[in-house]
Design a protein that fits this description.
Length: 156
């Protein structure tokens, strides 16, 4: 009985390192961003409290042999208005290298529904990059830190 349980447990656990991602020669990615987080109770004006966070966007080339070209990283606010293009000219990210973008805590223009649309290309199909955002507010009394992960969207 114990052996059957262990076999079932082993079959039900995810296979780490095998996420099924196929190689690609380019993608358009959507990355959720929070320049602030709403929390707490609603005040007399109907607004909850707001905690500003800094954001570190990390584009990680996980291909061990081939570089990729980061061609665009456009930042949008909660209303969908384009705020800034962070990649003015294509940036080459070498094998196993990382390119980072930073939004300071003082910049709350994006809002709680901000996002990046990130485009990358390669001359041949490679392992797609891992693109994440680390959101942080470190304070003595209360600190928060969380990540968001990009997902592929259609370029249309």
């Amino acid at each position: 009985m114990r052996m059957a349980f262990l076999v079932l447990l082993g079959l039900s656990l995810p296979a780490f390192g095998q996420d099924g991602r196929t190689r690609s020669a380019g993608q358009v990615l959507y990355l959720p961003i929070y320049s602030h987080v709403w929390y707490g109770e609603v005040d007399a004006r109907g607004q909850p409290q707001k905690s500003l966070v800094s954001v570190l966007v990390s584009v990680r080339n996980v291909d061990a042999r081939r570089a990729l070209r980061l061609t665009s990283a456009r930042y949008y606010d909660t209303e969908g208005k384009s705020l800034k293009e962070y990649v003015q000219t294509a940036r080459v990210i070498g094998p196993m290298a990382t390119y980072e973008l930073f939004i300071p805590r003082s910049d709350d223009t994006g809002g709680s529904g901000a996002n990046f649309v990130i485009s990358w290309k390669s001359d041949v199909a490679i392992n797609p990059p891992i693109v994440e955002a680390l959101h942080v507010n470190l304070a003595a009394a209360r600190s928060i830190a969380f990540t968001t992960t990009a997902r592929e969207i259609n370029a249309d």
